[in-house]
Amino acid sequence: MTRRVSEDDGDPARLPLRPPPVPALDAPWSLRLVTPHDAATVHAWMHRPHVATRWDQAWSRERWDAEIARQLAGEHSRPCLVARDGLELAYVEIYRVARDGLAEHYDAGPDDLGLHVAIGEEDRTGFGLGTALLTALAEALLAADPACERIVLEPEEGNAAMHRALAKAGFVATARVRLPHKVALLHVRERVTAA
């Protein structure tokens, strides 16, 4: 197993030198980095029951302000908003797995990218948008970062809708992992190289 590394480990050669990319998505999708002004949107989505039960981050507005500022100031994770046809519908965190606790649960490569995805607009769920979004994100991340060999997600074990969407988007469930805050299924989408 690869253990998580951080700036404090004293071995910068083990760390990916780049923060995770924020790739451009093909229309009708768009992806942009969150700004401090977006904290109200993220805060509202995290309080919606369909998100709150899975993310367990129905925090105060002040805590979300601080969390977004922390992520924007660091190199581990990139908080983003996703829109489809110009309408924002999802919050996404793109992160380097090697800098995350998830790295302790599988043989993480130094450039693996992880995703956390929350479709905040409940009326836009159940129509295949999750599958389409996951496909678009995976393809864009692999194109934006040639060193990345895998995209991973670790949804809660009981999140059947997410597991179905990931399978349809080309991800494979590879392991059951016990994380501090949940039991999850690790889903991996590998880079496909032409033969």
Describe the SSE topology:
Blueprint: E1 29-33, H1 39-46, H2 49-55, H3 61-73, E2 77-84, E3 87-96, E4 113-119, H4 129-144, E5 150-153, H5 160-168, E6 172-179, E7 182-190
Parallel strand pairs: 4-5
Antiparallel strand pairs: 1-2, 2-3, 3-4, 5-7, 6-7
Helix pairs in contact: 1-3, 4-5
GO molecular function, one term: N-acyltransferase activity
Function: Acyltransferase required for the direct transfer of medium- to long-chain fatty acyl moieties from a carrier protein (MbtL) on to the epsilon-amino group of lysine residue in the mycobactin core.
Domain N-acetyltransferase: 29-195
Note down, in words, how this protein is organized.
By secondary structure, this protein is α+β, with helices and mostly antiparallel strands. The protein has one domain: Gcn5-related N-acetyltransferase (GNAT) (Aminopeptidase, 3-Layer(aba) Sandwich). Helices cover 27% and strands 26% of the residues. It is built from 5 helices and 7 strands, in the order βαααβββαβαββ. The chain has a 7-stranded mixed sheet, sandwiched between helices. The two termini are 28 Å apart.
Task: Name a few traits of the molecule.
single chain, globular, seven-stranded mixed β-sheet, Aminopeptidase, 195 residues, alpha+beta
